[in-house]
Design a protein that fits this description.
- This protein is mainly α.
- It is elongated, with a radius of gyration of 18 Å.
- It starts with about 30 loop residues before the first helix and ends with a helix.
- It is built from ten helices and no strands.
Length: about 210
């Protein structure tokens, strides 16, 4: 089972990717409770992945990187594991290394759309808009209507100062995917797009 990665979230893996691991507590104690879970079996890759997730959620990418690297040392490379590490590098500003692992993730599984969207987001953030659109073309045909894809398109249209196209993508999400339109990921992304479009409109009006 994987969770959405488009916003840089990490992947939670379950069997059959690897053997089961005793479920930890709710991790209310942060990295300390996750470390206790890892102490049960320090060679278990899922334990390192769990601790990497906690550090990612706490905004501690350097610590997350260490544990995600341990996962890749202890387990065969999987696309979502490479995305986890790429996200950590992106959050540290080590974009060349992030791109390397996004590329590896896409090679291992071209159908990992969440990982591909995280890569697109990184290119958007560094203003490589043409490259971002090129990567977006790699989304499989049967996933091109996914709400996360529409949200990324809206962000790219916003970057390209195409407000009508950006708003059309948001409308598509709300019309076709009403449940997703209630999610935090959508509301956060929608807010970014609308704020940027409003700022663009203000600038345009100031020049007329």
């Amino acid at each position: 089972i994987l969770i959405d990665q488009e916003g840089g979230r990490v992947a939670r893996l379950r069997p059959p990717h690897w053997t089961g691991f005793p479920p930890p507590a709710s991790f209310e104690g942060g990295p300390e409770s996750a470390a206790e879970a890892m102490a049960l079996n320090p060679m278990n890759p899922q334990a390192h992945n769990l601790l990497g997730m906690v550090y990612s959620d706490l905004g501690m990418p350097e610590e997350a990187e260490f544990h995600f690297r341990q996962v890749l040392l202890l387990h065969e490379p999987l696309s979502p594991l490479c995305v986890n590490l790429a996200n950590a590098y992106k959050n540290m500003g080590r974009l060349r290394e992030a791109e390397s692992f996004y590329r590896q993730a896409h090679y291992l599984d071209p159908n990992n759309v969440d990982g591909l969207l995280a890569w697109v987001r990184m290119e958007e953030a560094r203003a490589q808009i043409d490259r971002a659109w090129e990567l977006l073309e790699r989304v499989p045909e049967d996933r091109k209507d996914a709400p996360g894809v529409h949200l990324v398109k809206a962000a790219l249209h916003r970057r390209g100062k195409n407000p009508d196209e950006a708003l059309a993508e948001l409308d598509d999400i709300e019309r076709k995917h009403p449940k997703y339109a209630e999610s935090a990921a959508y509301l956060y992304g929608r807010g970014d797009v609308l704020d940027a479009l409003l700022a663009f409109q203000v600038v345009q009006e100031a020049h007329h």
